[in-house]
Amino acid sequence: MEREKVELTTVQGTMLATLYARALDSRARHSILGDHTADEVVRRVDHDWSKTGTQAPWDAATLALRGRELDRWTGEFLIAHPGEVTVLHLACGLDTRVHRLDPPPSVRWVDVDFPDVIELRRRLLPEPGGNYRMLGASVTEEGWLEEVPGDRPVVVVAEGLTMYLHEEEGRQLIQRICGHFPGGELLFDCFSERLVRLAKKLSWMAMGIAPRAVLESWHWGIDDPRELEGWQDGLAFVDDLYVVDVPDLGRLPAAARIGLRLGAHLPGGRDSGRLLRYRF
């Protein structure tokens, strides 16, 4: 089998780390996501996976738990809206969420990312059935949203996106989405302002957390989710979930559990990462 050579920018390359984490999780004895499609893609890609920084079992499990909770929230929306709805998956990368959830034909699913990422998806990932399409664009650009019909309720999922946006870009994106669709939910993960500031100060060290270019690309942190409610009439904060409170943390290796518990007791540690859910 001929393997696919992948060349992306450092920041876009973070999607390879996430993909590899889900592949590793799928190989575990007690897999969290069971994302075998991700594993199939990894085996088709010609890449030095040691450079992703995702090697330890707890890296894979932690990322899989985060993805599973966003899957769960998305699935709850689809169950609550059994008619025709739209799923707008922003900064989709090589995520196989559409394959994991396998939505019915009544669901319009749109995966959005940079054109080169979308082209890579076309080469590597199997084409889902149903009402599915991919859209190549930067989510911060104006105009791309007009290519998505705004005639249905929407659930917007964005994993690993907000920290790379500037706050004003995030505000404009949320306002455009809320103005385009009749209603729906916004689901995304975020970092705290403290973590974003710390990453920038210590990016020269890289700290083993992420490549320097990635740390320097973090801009937006969210401390008070209710502040976003003032950005758009009808936008309401519904729920949040701290990363350290994600269900089934007991499935992580002991070293990871201890590390998370210790980190949660450091100043700002518990608030450093969480998932947010809004309704409009």
Automatic annotation (TrEMBL):
GO biological process, one term: methylation
The organism's place on the tree of life at top rank: Bacteria
One Gene Ontology term of the molecular function aspect: methyltransferase activity
Keyword Phosphoprotein belongs to the record: no
Keywords: Methyltransferase, Transferase
InterPro entries from the UniProt entry: Ppm1/Ppm2/Tcmp (IPR007213), SAM-dependent_MTases_sf (IPR029063), TcmP-like (IPR016874)
Family annotation (Pfam families): LCM (PF04072)
PANTHER family reported for this sequence: S-ADENOSYL-L-METHIONINE-DEPENDENT METHYLTRANSFERASE YKTD-RELATED, S-ADENOSYL-L-METHIONINE-DEPENDENT METHYLTRANSFERASES SUPERFAMILY PROTEIN
Record protein name field: O-methyltransferase involved in polyketide biosynthesis
